Each structure stands twice: as structure tokens, then as C-alpha cells.
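[Solved] Which block belongs to which protein?

Original post:
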Amino acid sequence: MHGTIHRTECRNRGACQVCYTSTAMPDPQSSARDRRNYFRITIVLPVSIQREMDSAESVLTEKSVNLSAGGLGFVSELAHQPGEILAITLGLQEQVLFKTQAEVLRQDPLPSRVHAYRIHARFVRMSDHDRELLIGHIMRLQRAHLHEHYSA
């Protein structure tokens, strides 16, 4: 079964030109082995992370995330319980918004900060097509990072 990418104009004060939304699709459960098969990159991106049922308008905030096509890790001042579903919006290159959902796998308290947690989540309900789209963006982010840091 393949998902649909909705290409729409963004209403987020011109912060994006295209919005990709990962549709709610049945997703085979990825194993720990599968999650490590995806390249990971730690990068600062405009992101919005909120509980799936939160009806408040999402606001993009620059945040460091550890991102792969299998999921993401981030630091949060809010506790998120394992099994909780989060609505994720990533501001990717070329002013693209990528919207999807992620299931919290675990949270680890940060020893250096009170009421701060390292959240580990895996993407759910993501079609293969959307995952491939995200992989392409991650590869471009990696290329840009390498170019920035290793160009003469």
C-alpha cells in the first residue's frame, strides 16, 4: 500500500513553499535492526513536536534532532511516555515541511538538566514513498553539512 504526498502551499508566514504530509497508513513495525539500517544525522532544524491529539497550531522552533528515516531523537522539557504518538513537522531544505507521526519508544532523564528528557521515537504510519522522500532530504542535509565543514 502506498501513501500519498500532498503538495500544498504553506500558510506558515512564507516559511515554506511545499508541504509534504505523511498520510496515516498501516506501517510494518520496524525492528531495532531496521532502525539502525538508516543513516542518522544530528542537525538543527525548524521542528514542531506535539502530542497527536493537541489541537493547538504547531509552531516551528529551531531544535537539534538526531534524524533518520526510521525515527528521531530530541531533548524535551515535556515528559513523553512510551507508546505516546507525536505529531512531527520538520522544516527541511528548500523550504519543505515534512509532516508525520512518531511513537515514543523511551525517554531518558538528562542528568545535567532538571525536568529535561532525551526522547527516542520511531516514525509510524509512514508509506515507503514518504520514507524514500525523507531519505533523500537526509542525504542532501548530509551533503550540505560535509560541504560546509570540509570544503577548501
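(Second protein starts here: sequence line, then its C-alpha cells.)
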Amino acid sequence: MLGSLGHRGEAVTSEAAVIGLDLDQVGDRLGRFRLQQPGAERAMAASLRRYGQVSPVVVFVHAGQYELVDGFKRRAALREVGQASRVTARVLETDQKGAKVAMLLVDHQDFTTTIREHVRAFEDRGGAATVCLYDSMKVVVHFWEGEQPVYNPRFLAFCFHYGYRAWACKRRRPRTKGKVEEPFKYVTSNLLNARSFVSRDDLNAFTREVWLPKVDLRPHDTTKRPPLELWEQERPQLLPLPDHPYDTAEVFYRCVGPEWHVPYRQNSYSVPWTRIGQWLPVRVTEAELILYGPDLCEIVRHALADPGRNEKRTLPEHAPGADEPRRYELLRERFVELGEQGPAFLEGLVRGRRYGKEEAHRVLGLLATYEHKDLIAAIERACRYRAYSLTAIERILTAQGLS
């Protein structure tokens, strides 16, 4: 993954200055790599109105301009709030390639990735720590009630499973937090600097088999003792692991698009084309993406593609096929679900439009955006005026939304 982003070992240092900038000085040229989340931006705006900016955004300098690496929602929310024209920013000393790598790391600080890395760490060390310190990261802390942290219930379930205690460090008190800046700097300058890795597996294998065995035996600058020696000393204090590891699979719903694929992390995975417009449960493990039908029976499994590759994982048997009469019959079964006028609309669409069946796919795909009852009402109105086309349905739905 690092190699695919063009990273060839340039240092991404976390020893960064915190400065104040005008909002207009902060660009978002890397914003195209981030998902747009209007709901999250509104929540961020509400938080800014109540507390102000608590944590700095992260920027780097490119062609004399400050560009965002992390903090896109905060920047948008600050503009929406309009109470401040300045933003607090932490400046990374890196180039554009290193900034993309930093964005990759930030993007993977979600709940699923966080607990998976905890599980890896516990299994690698042979036990769980009694207490783990955390900054005020959203995965761990849902919100603060005064000076009391209210923890994310999902993360607490994970803590209770392993029997350890989470400790949220107080805000704006860096002396209470764990030491993380210098170790991160050591990794980027010692492990990543002047080395190339073709994939994340390549990086992990080198770290595990070559780099860590040397580092663990090297005396630490602060303790003057090798980390491996200290770990052996503290090993008896680790909590024993439970009989079964925590299930880290991610579960959510996705609507099947008109091209009979579902999206996940900028890749897409096929399902049988007759599923177009259906909302399907999806389960994602570290290696597979598994799709289930509305009845919760498994439909298909796909090997997971690396995030951001824009890959299409397609199985040939999921395509419509060359049997056009059979294709029409299956489409008719789907349009029966769209009210009494559904089959009549399909018949008019296929008879009057050159690519009627393809338009029918896209009509079903509108269920990803509009409610079932709204699409039924739009089809009834289109049939009333004999407007058998995708564009007619889209215009009616737009008008219904404005009325």
C-alpha cells in the first residue's frame, strides 16, 4: 500500500510546530482522497460552537501553501460556524508523498482497525495490559461531560472482553499522556527512511523478521535497558488472553448499484444483477468481504482488495447474461415489487427505449437514494402521463423532494 502511494522512504516526522493560521491560508488539495460526510460535519460544527477548536488540524507545506492532511471536517465546520477566521494547525515536515502516507494512517484510525491492532498487540505480547492510556480519540471517548470522559460503548465492550481498563487522558494536559511522539519519529526516521516496500505485507514482514529483533536488543535512550529485557520483567503482570479473540469483523448495509456492485473503501464487489436496488448486509473480515441476502443467507464471498485501488471484483455468473427473455422475466419480478404500475412501466420502458433494460437497472438503483414508497409514487405518476423513461422518474422524484 505504501508503494502504491508513491512512498519511497521519505521521513514523515511527528515533531511538528503548532501555529495559528487564517482559514483562507489552509488548502484542501488532498480532499479528493477523503469521503464527504455532511452529517459528521454538522456534528463537528455543533461541537465547535460549544467548545471551540480543541485539537489542531494537521497540515504540510506544498508550493508555499499550507495543505490539509487531517482536519477536513473541522475546516468545513469552522467555515459553517463562522465564529472564527483562524485555525490552530500542526505542521508536518514532509512532502506530498509523505502527506498521502500520513492520510492513509489517519484514515485507518477507525473503530474496526483500532481494535484489530489491539488484538494483534495483545496476541504478539502474549497478554493484555492492565491499563491502556488513550488520547481523546473518537473511537475511545464518545464525548466529555465536563472533565469526565463518556466512553464509546462499543469500545468498552472490547475492553470488558479482554478485562483491561481504558484510561482517557485529560484534555489540554500533555503531561498526563503517554509518550508517543518520539517513538513515532524513531519509526519514521529509522524504519521507513531510505527503504522501499512494495506492499503493507512486505513492510510488516520486514518489521517483524528483520527490524524488531535488532531494535528490541538495543538499549533504550531513557531506560538504558533493552526493551525485550523490560518486557520479560513485566510479562508476569499481563492479563491472560480470553479463550476466544474478539470478533473484529465490520458489519454494515450497502445498496446494490445499477452495475450490480457494492462499494467498499473505493473498491467494488459484484453480486447477482437481480439484487440491484436491494439493501444487503455486508460483513468484512481482514481478508474477505461477505454479502448476505435480506433473509441473512450468504450470497457471495470476495477476497478483500487494498483500499483506494478502484478495483472491481466481478464474478462472471453475476452478469445479466445473453438470454434476453429470461432477463426480462427477472426484471419483471423486481418491478412487481414496485407497485401495481411497476410491470406496466417496465413494459413501456423496454418497448419505447433503445436501451430499456439498462434504464430499468438504473431505475432499480434509485432505491439507494430514495425510499421505496417514493419510487412507487414516481412510477405511478410516470405511467399516468406515459412517460416511460429513467429521466422522467428522476425528474418526478426531484419534484417530489422539493414539494
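Accepted answer:
You had them paired correctly. Confirming on the second one: Residues 1-16 have pLDDT under 50 and may be disordered.
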